[in-house]
Amino acid sequence: MDGLHETMQAVCLRRVPQGMPQAQDFELRQLPLPTPGDSQLRIQVQWLSLDPFLRAQLGGRYAVPCPPLGSIVPGYGIGTVLEDRSGRFAVGEVVSGLTGWAEQAVLDAGTVSRVDATLAPISTAVGVLGIPGLTAWAGVRRILEPKPGQTLLVSTAAGAVGSVVGQLCGAAGCRVVGISGSAEKCAIATAEFGFDACVNYRDADFLQSLRAACPDGIDGYFDNVGGAVLEAALSLLNLHARVVLCGLSDQYNRAERPAGPNLGPVIGARARLEGLVVYDHLADFDLCRRELAAMIADGTLRYREHIHDGLASAPAGFIGLLNGDNLGKALVRL
Amino acid sequence: MDGLHETMQAVCLRRVPQGMPQAQDFELRQLPLPTPGDSQLRIQVQWLSLDPFLRAQLGGRYAVPCPPLGSIVPGYGIGTVLEDRSGRFAVGEVVSGLTGWAEQAVLDAGTVSRVDATLAPISTAVGVLGIPGLTAWAGVRRILEPKPGQTLLVSTAAGAVGSVVGQLCGAAGCRVVGISGSAEKCAIATAEFGFDACVNYRDADFLQSLRAACPDGIDGYFDNVGGAVLEAALSLLNLHARVVLCGLSDQYNRAERPAGPNLGPVIGARARLEGLVVYDHLADFDLCRRELAAMIADGTLRYREHIHDGLASAPAGFIGLLNGDNLGKALVRL
Prior knowledge:
2 copies of one chain form a homodimer. By secondary structure, chain A is α/β, with parallel strands linked by helices. Chain A folds into 3 domains: 7-126, Medium-chain alcohol dehydrogenases, catalytic domain (Quinone Oxidoreductase, Chain A, domain 1); 131-275, Rossmann fold (3-Layer(aba) Sandwich), CATH 3.40.50.720; 279-333, no CATH class. Chain A is 26% helix and 26% strand. Chain A has 10 helices and 15 strands. In chain A, the strands form 4 sheets. Chain A has a 5-stranded antiparallel β-sheet with strand order 6-3-4-5-7, with no helix packed on it. In chain A, strand 9 (175-180), helix 4 (183-191) and strand 10 form a beta-alpha-beta unit. In chain A, helix 2 (131-144) packs across helix 3. The first copy, chain A, starts with 6 loop residues before the first strand and ends with a strand. At the A-B interface, strand 1, strand 3, helix 2, helix 3 and helix 4 of A face strand 1, strand 3, helix 2, helix 3 and helix 4 of B.
């Protein structure tokens, strides 16, 4: 297959997957060769990347909407330039971009990246040196900030993202514990990627094994899973631990979201949730009191008290507080 | 009642509350007057603080364990010094500390704070100028960091913490929206505490009203509740929004924890959960690639590829990836 053919093969979306995708959700079709416009280039695809986020996208749960039925399945690819109308690439150069599942692709030159074939095999441009690698790197460098001697926990430990997270944390001097979905993957995580331990979340004694692998708790956790795996990790958090919320593979194939607070919007918003325990801030008490007292004095801060009279009224006052009956700060006057 | 009496009244824990506390869980008893040891002082209690966290403590879900049956119910109080053996306080001075629900208390001098009666009425030492005020202040100043023009959402808006959070955010130039549990409390939040709007979470159209009150989404949320209220707030998060996880009043009175990820340990650990979307970090792609390529070159970073051959193998490869069958980065070679 080359640029002289008039058609190309492509895999198109036949129907929107329900639950786990089926082969019949996709269709191999013969399509006309795409033609580049100004500032576009035509690529002969050599490698396609298969990524879990595509499932979220096909379910309409991703930043980018689900493509229309009949269109080429979207995805990253790597290929060589067949034709360039942007003046920015040479024919034969290796590039990566959102080619989709097709033999050829036409892309805007601005959305295409050069692949440096001297760094590593070109297929790494969608793996360890591509978006999975950047995901791991950004999570470690920008959020986890691992310190020597800390314990870092990593889900999907043998995967494209998790394996890099684990190795970056190991290089930072951490004890690195992985979570994976089979004994084989756990063996890969420890033997190939240097994890100090790896626990199979499908094992019946998963929680027990995880605790045993993290005797000092965890100082950071990289989550690609959500659900029960996240729940287990949260139960091991040390003081001021950091958690990267990166994926929810636990729910990509479910028709219904699992119960409980949905952390999907937290990922989408790049939001930060932080636990507050007031006793950490006692050193600021004088500063706080001065500021608030000044605001009370100048009328910009109001307060309200709900007063119960006599020591014997304390239980009823407390019960009322829990019922939400009080209006303002609940107090007992002796 | 003064220091000359030989006994005092106290409210003691008769049994551990199950679900919503009952009056019979408590017992008013006559106890011997406590006697201060070295570096302690004896206090005549004038005000007792009633606080929701006590419910968590009585349920064994708090940093401080549940007190033994028969002992005085713990809690903050304010009173005057009757007798000082620390040499640090004068008789008659007003102080606050963990007096418990009793007419008198003996406390270590190091755990007692002077109350400045010139700042505001002394009862505020357990309210707006006490731990609730510090909680609000620390959440706003150290986590939310509200900016003018942002929308801030505050749960328990009419309460001792929420009312201060709202007013601090209002003073910072924000649109402030409250969540509360009755129409009366919502009216207090807007009329007394200056909230721009307040929504009753018990209303059938709560979610709809909340969305209407936050037409531009929310840039910060102070959560004292958890559960469905937190879930509603998360659905409104703007980019890089911040959430203070401070309380879980939704579950204090439940025998069983609600389903889904339990955020209790996140509060206890003062942990930080942060959403990561890799596309925010594209500017770092070159830096990341250089670092990772150098690690590949010197053998400290390994990767693994799971290769499927031919475009037609893409659907099966993708399905296998979602099944967890792949070992390493999933690729299709064309």
